[in-house]
Amino acid sequence: MKPVNIAPELDAAVGKVAHKHGLSVSRDTHYDAFNIELQWWSGNQKHRIDFQPYPEGHVIVTKLADEYTVFGKFLCWAQNVIPFFPFLAKTRSVSLGILNPPFDVDSLESQVNDYLARALYSSATAAVHL
Prior knowledge:
The chain has 3 helices and 5 strands.
């Protein structure tokens, strides 16, 4: 599959939501793919909402959680900067939905906020069930 660039409207909407809620934004986190992610930490869990565009024009939205048993931020840092450092987290994923064009910043911002609320709710309920 040929990599697809992030729509500028989606990039702007994700940036606005990240700024409003104090979250981090990462781009191009997957090998040979253009994506954008909202990221935040809760204890030893790194939470991400991944927006992955496809050539057909739609964007798949997935909630990812990387759970480390100890020293989460340190181990995450180490795997990003030390070659061949093992990935020591357990990753869970949940599909949140699909964004379909045409895109405009205001409606995308509303949808990204909704996905964030759902992701935060699923994180809270998962913590209760552990």
